[in-house]
Design brief:
There is one protein chain. Strands 1, 2, 3, 5, 6, 8 and 9 form a 7-stranded mixed β-sheet that branches. The protein is elongated, with a radius of gyration of 37 Å. A hairpin with a 2-residue loop joins strand 8 and strand 9. The protein has a domain at about 65-175: TolA/TonB C-terminal domain, CATH 3.30.2420. The chain is of the alpha+beta class. Helices cover about 15% and strands about 25% of the residues. The protein has helices spanning about 5-15, 105-110, 145-155; strands at about 65, 75, 85, 95-100, 115-125, 130-135, 155-160, 160, 165-175.
Length: about 180
């Protein structure tokens, strides 16, 4: 009993002590695992979705551009080896437009609310695909020339024929840029 005040004073200074009875057997319940700390790692935001890898080209009116498989454009250099392209009045059956793709608006053109059409002249190949495109009017601002050429390259036609054989033909058409209402966006 003489040690009781010392134990009480020690407990007071140290703080509460948990006392478990000792029976000589191990505790059958495992000690609870410490709660894991969840640390959130900020995810890196992607800059922008991957756009098609098109080389940027500044399209100008009255220059002819070749439609490439990878959706890029190339300036056409006139050659004497080029296949003959017929005018509409030289063919028996004229090329007929089957599908027209919607042109993509550039951010700047949308911001400035530019609308209208760009007149183009395309070479419709024997397979109905567009081979080359030429802007025939003054074109459009804010990258709409390039968008018009890309849209024209995606057009598909029933090819022209002359004397029962498919031939390439020049076709005049327009690429129309129309801003939708705010509901469409």
């Amino acid at each position: 009993m003489k040690h009781l005040p010392v134990i009480a004073l020690t407990c007071f200074l140290i703080g509460p002590v948990s006392v478990t009875p000792q029976s000589g057997r191990k505790n059958s319940k495992p000690a609870p695992a410490p709660t894991p700390v969840v640390v959130e790692v900020p995810k890196e935001k992607p800059d922008k979705p991957a756009a098609p890898a098109r080389p940027l080209i500044a399209a100008v009116p009255n220059e002819e551009y070749k439609c490439m498989e990878d959706e890029s454009l190339a300036v056409v250099v006139p050659s004497s080896d080029a296949e003959r392209v017929f005018a509409p009045n030289e063919v028996t059956i004229k090329a007929k437009l089957v599908t027209r793709s919607k042109p993509e608006y550039t951010t700047e053109a949308r911001r400035h609310a530019v609308a209208g059409s760009i007149a183009v002249r395309v070479v419709v190949l024997k397979n109905g695909k567009v081979g080359t495109v030429k802007i025939t009017d003054r074109g459009g601002p804010f990258g709409l020339n390039e968008s018009a050429i890309h849209a024209a390259c995606k057009m598909e036609f029933v090819p022209a024929s002359k004397d029962g054989e498919r031939v390439s033909q020049w076709v005049k058409t327009e690429v129309i840029f129309r801003l939708g209402s705010s509901i469409d966006r």
